[in-house]
Amino acid sequence: MRLLITGAAGFLGSHLTERFINEGHNVVGMDNLITGNMDNLAHLMGHKHFEFIKHDVSQYIYVAGPVDAVLHFASPASPNDYLEYPIPTLKVGSLGTHNTLGLAKDKGARYLLASTSEVYGDPKVNPQPETYWGHVNPIGPRGVYDEAKRFAEAMTMAYHRYHGLDTRIVRIFNTYGPRMRLHDGRVVPNFINQALLGEPLTVYKDGSQTRSFQYYSDLVEGVYRLLFSDECLPVNIGNPSEMTILNFAHAVVELARSDSEILFIQPEDERIKDDPKQRRPDIEKAKRLLGWEPVVELADGLSKTIEYFRSRI
Ligand code: UDP
C-alpha cells in the first residue's frame, strides 16, 4: 500500500510511519512542522519506502500518484499548544480534515481520522463508551481542539454516508512515550523533566483529577488493526487503568529514582480551565472488534520514556 500520513513528524505520526514502513508499505509523510520535528523522521529520510512533503494540510493538498490510505494525524495535541496555536488547531481539524477527505475521495483511498477522548470533554460518564456524546465547552480554551475534532468526526461521517468513502475514526486517549516533546506542557513530559532535574513536580489543583495513560506502541497496534478492520464508527483506543494525577506524580518520582517533591499549584493562566476531572476509556468495542487491548504496563512504558528524556536533557 501507499499511505499518506499527515502529522508524520509528530510523536504519533512518526511512530505510525515507522510501523507501516516496517510492514513493507510506502509512506508519504506530510507535516508543516509547527509542533512536529524532523528529528523524529531523521532515521527514515532516504529510505526507499519513505518520502516527506512539508505542507500545511489546511491548504489544498497535492500528492502525485496513487494513494491507498490517508491517515490524518496532523494537529497540535497539547493544551499548551492549543493556547499558542488556537486558529491553526481549528483549521487543521476542520479544513485539514476536509482537504484530506477530499484527497482520499479523489484517490479512492481508505481514510482514518485521528480523533480524541477530548470529544467527550469533561465527561459526566466514566468510563467513556463510544456511545457517550460528551460534555464540551465550545468557547473555552480547549474548545478549539475539542470542537475541531468533533467537526472532523462529523465531516468524516458525512463523507462516509454521502460519498460512500471507506472511513475509520480512532478516539485516542492520553498516550505517552519516546518522541514526545520535552516542553509540550503535558503532564508526562512535565513530570519526567522535573523529576530528572530534581525540581518539584507541578501538580495542578489537588491532583485528584484522573487520566489513563497508554504507551505509544499499544496505540500504534490499535490504529493498525482498526485501519484493516471494517468498522466505520468511532473506536476508543486507550489504556483503561485510571489513576489520579497525584498518584501519577508519585509513580514518575519513583521510577526516575528522583528526590523531587510534589508542588500543588493553581496555574493562573487558562491552562487548566475546563480540565476534565476524570478520563478513562471503555475499550470493550476495541476488544470485541479488533481483538485489541493494551499490553504495556505503566512501569515499563514510563521507564523507557524516562530513559528517552534522560538522553535528551
Ligand atoms: N497536569 C498537572 N501538572 C502539569 C501538567 C498537567 O497536574 O504540569 C494535569 C492537568 O491539569 C490534567 C492532567 O495533568 O489534569 C493531564 O494533562 P495534560 O496536559 O497531559 O493533557 P490532557 O489530558 O488534559 O489533555
Strand order of the largest sheet: 3-2-1-4-5-6-11
Low-confidence parts: none
Total number of distinct structural domains: 2
Q: Output the helix-strand order.
A: EHEEEHHEHEEHEEEHEEHEHH
**Termini, distance in Å?**
38 Å
Structural class: alpha/beta
Which ligands appear in the coordinates?
A: uridine-5'-diphosphate
CATH superfamily of the largest domain: NAD(P)-binding Rossmann-like Domain
The amount of beta strand, in percent, is 15-25%
CATH topology of the largest domain: Rossmann fold
- Output the CATH class name of the largest domain: Alpha Beta
What's the architecture of the largest domain in CATH terms? 3-Layer(aba) Sandwich
- Helical amount among residues, as a percent range? 25-40%
Give me the Rg, rounded.
Answer: 19 Å
Number of extended strands = 13
Reported for the largest beta sheet, the result is: 7 strands, parallel
Short key terms for the protein model shown above:
Rossmann fold; 313 residues; 37% helix; UDP-galactose 4-epimerase, domain 1; two-stranded parallel sheet; binds uridine-5'-diphosphate
